[in-house]
Design a protein that fits this description.
Layout (H helix, E strand, L loop, with lengths): L1 E9 L2 H16 L6 E6 L3 E4 L15 E3 L6 E4 L3 E7 L7 H17 L6 E3 L2 E6 L2 E11 L2 E9 L23 H5 L5 H16 L2 E4 L6 H4 L2
Parallel strand pairs: 1-2, 1-11, 3-4
Antiparallel strand pairs: 2-6, 3-5, 6-10, 7-8, 8-9, 9-10
Length: about 220
């Protein structure tokens, strides 16, 4: 099975949010293939369906209430965000989330980071520090939203929220764990390689024309 890769570089959150929803509609109608969006965002806070009012502090960073599960999180430069638009053959959201965790665990280990899971806490962890957050939504059994992997992220922005209901200091990055800045393109390559392996798919650059409704975005 093929999954089309859309590497968008750096894009504003609202633009990519609209692209996700358009792709979900197109995939639901069999007008587009499964796809994986990789992107960095400008500074933004997103609030999942389980966000508690006390988990967001007043601040100047744009805030969006979105469809995904989970709590408040931050996106910004130096963080690799992935949005899999996948029509699930077996409607099992929990298994899908576990598979995304495995993708990021394998990616992290490729950079000598001993990442793993933590019982009762979704995401990817290194000891008691959280390296990546995951929150998905599903429409017509097509997934969207996805994961955020802290690569060279400015961690001070997590002070604006209680990320996933946790203390800001819980969050960490690949840069903090390795003591060096990582090349984002190298991390992307590992994410694609791990995604291909875990989901048993062939991930390649978008090789068919975008539907007209998407090409306008």
């Amino acid at each position: 099975m093929k999954v089309s890769l859309l590497d968008l570089g750096t894009k504003p959150y609202p633009e990519v949010w609209e692209l996700q929803k358009a792709l979900v509609e197109a995939r639901s109608r069999e007008e587009a293939p499964d796809s994986l969006i990789l992107v960095e965002h400008e500074h933004v806070i997103t609030l999942g369906r389980k966000t508690s009012p006390g988990n967001l502090k007043p601040q100047a960073v744009p805030v969006f209430q979105v469809e995904r599960g989970g709590d408040a999180t931050y996106h910004g430069p130096g963080q690799l965000v992935g949005y899999p638009i996948i029509k699930m053959e077996v409607p099992d959201v929990r298994a899908f989330v576990r598979a995304l965790e495995e993708v990021l665990i394998l990616t992290s280990r490729a950079f000598s980071i001993d990442a793993g899971r933590r019982e009762s806490h979704t995401g990817v962890w290194v000891g008691d520090r959280k390296l990546a957050s995951i929150g998905v939504a599903v429409t017509n059994w097509v997934t969207y939203h996805g994961f955020a992997l802290n690569v060279n992220t400015d961690m001070s922005f997590f002070q604006l929220i209680k990320p996933c209901g946790l203390e800001p200091e819980t969050m960490t990055s690949m840069e903090m764990l390795t003591g060096r800045r990582l090349e984002m393109e190298a991390v992307k390559r590992e994410v694609v390689r791990s995604f291909s392996s875990v989901f048993e798919v062939d991930v390649a650059k978008w090789v068919i024309p975008l539907p007209n409704t998407l090409a306008q975005l």
